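Section 5.1 Outputs to date
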Amino acid sequence: MGTAQVECLSSYLHRLAHAHGASYHQFMEHLRHWRLSTLGRPLSRHDSIRYNGYSREVAPLIETLQAGTGLANLAGCTLIALRDVCAGNAVGALKGTRAWCTACYRQAERHSDVVYDRLYWQIQGISRCAIHSLELSQRCGACGAAQRNNSGKTALSLCERCGESLAVDFGRFAPVIKHDAVGPQAEALLAYTSSSPSSRFRLAQLGEFTNTLLTLYPRRVLVEHFGELFHKRYYTLRLQLGTLLDLAAKLNTSIVDILTDGSRAASQMAIPFDLPARRDSVLRPRSDKEKRKRALELLEEATTRGPPYPTLASIIALADIGRWSAFYRRKDAFAAYGALRREHAASVRKMLARRIIRLAKTSSAVRALPTDKARHKWLAEKTGASICVVRKVMCAERRRNLHRPDATKV
């Protein structure tokens, strides 16, 4: 806390669930019941990506965690201070999946420190680590799977699908040196909000900033360089977080100064108008055409690479696009990929079932166990399947043996 490398709230929830030996969903269910019985108020059900931002679901969760843990500064793990300044839909504010720096993970493991995800890494538009200047990873280097924010089945440094370490560079998705234009602005913002968890920015300060600039420069020039923020309106526009960071970077002014004392920040800055104008340079894209193209590229890459196939949800999250927008005009490609995944999953289940049955028939250690429960547990440990899968396979095999009197007893 108190620095730009503050932990995001979804990472804290992930570590809490792992420490209690529960999955993320089990932990959240217990937390909802505890809040209802203790505080008398319900807790909404939403994806954990929202918990890092400034949506209306963040405040109740922070209140619940602070009451349960005794910590009073968990608001600094989110962007809730921007709730009154940024657009309520939060489009483009946060990434859809986890992002991490492999060098930070290795450094934490080398010194036996806690591995956690930074809130800085989760911000949309941030593609490098502020410490090592390495490109952030969003996929496992071993299997290529995206990592969900709401998965509490494994430690943060392990892939939720294959179990390999996320701190290792396998060469397939190796990070590279990269620099972000909005990185210093995001660092300054997080350093301020994490050191002052109770702070809350006001939209009026952004209005004072724009109004002061309009007294110093012609509106036409400001619109030409910075777009819709300076169009004539009867109200102050609530910007997307990415647009706000981009604006502060182009004006070479601290975003914290803009949001805390807008008039003073505007009066003390000088805009370099000698550069060529770039109309609408700070606006978000009006079309998802490029994102749909990126989703199709990821789909083709996954198909060419072969199994294990990543889920459609992870591909869509990596492309940073909505589900229906991704399926637009290319339903056939996504349907074919879904059929390919189902066919592969069915073949994997059949191979696992054959392995369980073969081991049950040939191993003398299974017959020596006294109960079915003990046999199922032993088979699950040896084959790597869950006990539920082993029980289902053994029950099906036992039903088949009823019609085969000469079959080997399982």
